[in-house]
Amino acid sequence: MVTGRGRLSHGLRVLITLGLAIILAAPLTGEVQSLPPSRGLDPRTGVCHAPGGLTVVAGGGFLETLDANGAVLARTPLASPWPARVAATAEPGTGRLLIAVVQGRPGDVFDRLRFRGVWRSAPPLVGGRVTLYAYDPANGRPPAPGFAKLWAGPGPSLNPWWVGFGDFTGTGRPSLLAGVWKTAVFDPLYDRRPFVYALYQTQVPTGAEGAGPAGFLPSAQWLGSRLSNPFVDLATGDADGDGLDEIVAVTTEPDGRYAVSTYDWSGFGFVLGLRAPGFRRVAGVTVLSPGHVAVVGRGATGGDGVFIFTAAKEVGGPGLLLPLTDSAPLPTYWNRPGGADVTISGGGWTIKVSADGHASLLTAPGR
User: Fold this and answer.
1) Domain identity same for 59 and 93
2) Domain end: 226, 242, 276, which one?
3) Which of 167, 201, 226 is at the close of a domain?
């Protein structure tokens, strides 16, 4: 009898697992296909093009810096071999890089059970942590590690899935933006939420192996429960050309479509700035240069393409992101997994688009 119950229990587990896998195999309503990058960020592959011509790579259990020729300058182990996303910015006044890494476990069918089956806009990573490192290029030649671990940020209970930097306040000091997936006091469902951490100078030695100049550490600036509309992806950059960075979010609309919306720091939170509504699908959004935003996706009509927008303020209400040109079409094969980058041109712009929706500016009108 004991053996029979054990066999029945195992069989039921197998049937339940297979049944849930079949039921949940269809794509989730409202999900976009990839995460958009912040300035210089290619989050799906864990590669960041950093100031000084360096490249930062996070993945396979290691964090590395590479020179312009792809040679490894320095390497340090990460907490786990889980998938990673990375962002980098210059640390004010020190000559070092600040590198934010978020690692997490890819979501699977068992996470749906753990979170009671409620996946409102579920992220691609769960159960991970944000870690902030400093990298000193002067000490970045092997065997000197060049890295210093500064801060362990949002952890598994917050399910961080995105990181980026932006100077939202105009102080010249970047803030760290983390996308987390959690419940809120007045919202019992798991949803994507923006957490912003200001960087404050500290006298704690933050160099490699604990010896080095004082640097910057994050402190909570705004732990938001949501933006004005639910969002599924994030980016940062000076989207409206005012000299300050904004949060750029892919937000969901009541009709099931998507909008690209910018949010400005107001001193106590982020308020809606500009909008570009009406997308049937958004694969990625990138701030190309101050006042210019590229959206890779599908508009109200037609196929996939790259839309380039410029800022336009309206008196008495939120402004609009107005398209400069008609959408530059993308070939039907552009977003195949592992596919090669596609270069498109239109209206004087030349842009390279990766298979995950990341747009890189090659040339702009007048350049």
Assistant:
1) yes
2) 226
3) 226
3-state secondary structure the chain: CHHHHHHHHHHHHHHHHHHHHHHCCCCCCCCCCCCCCCCCEECCCCEEEEHHHEEEEEECCEEEEECCCCCEEEEEECCCCCCEEEEEEECCCCCCEEEEEEEEEECCHHHHHHCCCCCCCCCCEEEEEEEEEEECHHHCCCCCCCEEEEEECCCCCCCCCEEEEECCCCCCCCEEEEEEEEEECCEEEEEEEEEEEEEEEEEEECCHHHCCCEEEEEEEEEECCCCCCCEEEEEEECCCCCCCCEEEEEEECCCCCEEEEEEEECCCCEEEEEEEEEECEEEEEEEEECCEEEEEEECCCCCEEEEEEEEEEECCEEEEEEECCCCEECCCCCCCCCCCCEEEEECCEEEEECCCCCEEEEECCCC
Q: What is the reported pTM? A: 0.78
* Whether 282 and 367 share a structural domain: yes
What is the per-residue pLDDT across 185-241, written as a single tens digit (0 to 9) for each?
888 888 899 999 998 877 655 444 444 445 678 889 999 988 988 898 999 999 988
